[in-house]
Request: fold
Amino acid sequence: IAGITQAPTSQILAAGRRMTLRCTQDMRHNAMYWYRQDLGLGLRLIHYSNTAGTTGKGEVPDGYSVSRANTDDFPLTLASAVPSQTSVYFCASSRQGSTDTQYFGPGTRLTVL
Amino acid sequence: GQNIDQPTEMTATEGAIVQINCTYQTSGFNGLFWYQQHAGEAPTFLSYNVLDGLEEKGRFSSFLSRSKGYSYLLLKELQMKDSASYLCAVRDGDYKLSFGAGTTVTVRA
Reply:
């Protein structure tokens, strides 16, 4: 693989269910990010990680958790999904953290019913 | 929070020029990015400005005025494939990146 991959591509989920969105990059980038994109609102940062082993909260972190056990993977978990979490989720990475350009994965379209 | 404004939609004819404006009010400034996003796809990096002036990259140019909190993306010799959303993003004093809602550009034949 080259770049950033996300899985699944799309998912329909019942409210209250637990869901993990996967993100993997093979560019050896130190920093990774999760955004959600909603019509008319633009991309909003959910959580970020500047390096393996560390994570931080973004603008809209409630209802989401992340972990960064290694450099390549940055999963996003919805512990108990709610309809307001229906969105398109993008994972991104950058080489050295917040001072570098971010590159985006293809996205996961999530619908919570 | 940060405030980043850009027009919602613009329409232009193939071969023409379109200018997408972005104004911002942020706590500090550490650079402005433009991304292109085709429908159903990921945003892709177009340009980065941190100093005042014009950055040219082929058919695309980006301008920044830090004192005015203003940037524009200029698309020249428009092609049908340029139909997309264009996202303005500003990195603030804490190096956090905030995005505008995006400008959807439609290129007509």
In short: The interface with chain A takes residues 1, 4, 30, 33, 35, 41-45, 48, 87, 89, 91, 95-102 of chain B (CB under 8 Å). DSSP finds no helices and eleven strands in chain B. Chain B has a mean pLDDT of 95.
